[in-house]
Amino acid sequence: MISGAITLLIHIYGVVQGVGFRPFVKKLADENKISGEVKNDGGIVIIYATAKEKAMNNFIHSLKALAPYGAVVDQIEVQQLPYKAYIGFKIIESTYTSSKTPVIPTDLPICESCLKELYDKSNRRYMHPFISCVACGPRYSIIKSLPYDRCRITMGDFEMCEKCAEEYESSERRTFAQTISCTECGPQLILNINGTETSKQTAFDNAVKIISSGGLLAVKAIGGYNLVCSACSQKAVRKLRLLKKRDKKPFAVMFNSIDEIAKAAYVSNVERQLLLSPARPIVLLKSKSSGICGEVFAESGRTGAFLPYTPLHQMLADACGTIVCTSANISGEPIIKDDEKMLSFVSEHLDGVLYNKREIAASLDDSVACVIADKPQLIRRSRGYVPSPIIINAVAAEPIFAAGGDLKSSFCLLSGGSAYLSQYFGDLDNQAVAEVYENAYKHMTQLFGIKPKFAACDMHPLYNSSRFAKSLGLEVVQIQHHFAHIASVMAEHKLSGNIIGVAFDGTGYGDDGAVWGGEFLICGSSSYVRAAHLEYTQMCGGDNAAKNALLCAACYMYAAGRQSFDEFNGYHTVKAAIEK
Ligand SMILES: [Zn+2]
Ligand SMILES: [Zn+2]
Questions:
Q1: How much distance in Å is there from the Cα of 428 to the middle of ligand 1?
Q2: Which of 192, 323, 362, 573 has minimal CB crowding within 10 Å?
Q3: 48 within a domain of the structure (yes/no)
Q4: Residues 78 and 167 both lie in one domain
Q5: For 238-281, what is the HEC assignment?
């Protein structure tokens, strides 16, 4: 026994899997002359360490202070064990004994080091569209179950080549990198045009030719397929509108660098930070006049801009210039994630499918954000943010499933003080969207090991989310729509006491069975008083008025005695319908 040496059992909680944490621990242990073992357990990291006390203190301090990029150490628990001698420090086989809810890493954008290698002709991963390391690459979207090891993610379908296997055992940036691959192993790029396929560099070169000459491609991304075309080609964007059956809404645009974004839109410091943040969200910016064709923006004065997050997107944006990059779905349908479905999709407007054979375990749309009063606001919280929990002040005694609403749906699993929000799904009146929602519930409850005791749902008797919540056999709590909106804001911003909540979000089922709209509620944490509201009026189109603010406004304008409403040319139809 080394004199003065102790043995400790260390539990580390937070985002500590899929971010190169175990190799980091080993390096730190070697530097501090600590012997022992490290392993993933469920969603946490466990260390057995033997060393002298001073070295041990330095080691424990550095676990948090020097944690690798992408890791978030929430908590370190230390417990002394009887002295045990180890030979060296090893990374050992994962186990699954921890009962604590794990924190699962979000998908990470390509890092600076990988980007350099991507364009380094002497590197064996030159132009490899799936280059990644311990600090970057897909994570949540490819996890089938925990702990985070190759056999439990969709990379498990690919065998490593000899060189990658060597790097996996011992290298600066890819030791235990579960997404490791190269041009010889792992997923490869394939371009399918009417059933004829080319692969690797040829596939990429052909794809660039198609996009650059005004064609439209489906491109497999992290959480599903994108539809991609040149942002400067009116012909291509028109094809995209026809394919998506989308007349007016603007499309998101991907630029190869922040400098290119600044040429097309005004970018404040906060917006810049948001664009460059690891989630790489689409950020709504005020447009400048630029080379992007007007067809992209339709009637909007804003540019939904974002930066590439995969090596493939970076390569495409570098080779083709600014591209329109939108989720591959027909209006109202969920984003397409399976190759079979995308390859069998027939449209005269689509010129090919650029894909790879790595399965997507969880579909994720791109996230959308904007900056209001210098603060980032999320409009759609999905890729890059999910499944990071939002930590709230209250602690749930029993886990809760909150089903959310039917429009622009998402749900939440509350375990302890952590609120795990699902990705964005779309509107649940679409059967295919409802299926994705239900599958995501199964996937997330299983992944996090959360077994809800209560289901919270909207009071609306016809909501699909409410029906699903009631079908689970849990104790059901029904919550008024607008109170749920305000309570969510209170939870997210840790507000307590009585607050005045204002909810103007279209329509929601009220306590009195009427459809409520503009609500002023005085809210506590579990109850509310309806202090004021817009007067009841006749509403055309039922729940459709919730989707169409102009229709809703026209009904109110009619009730207020206005004879015409210039912004909405359907005013006379509304008037006739109400008077009938
Ligand atoms: Zn990297
Ligand atoms: Zn390889």
A1: 37
A2: 573
A3: yes
A4: no
A5: HHHHHHHCCCCCCCEEECCCHHHHHHHEECCHHHHHHHHCCCCC
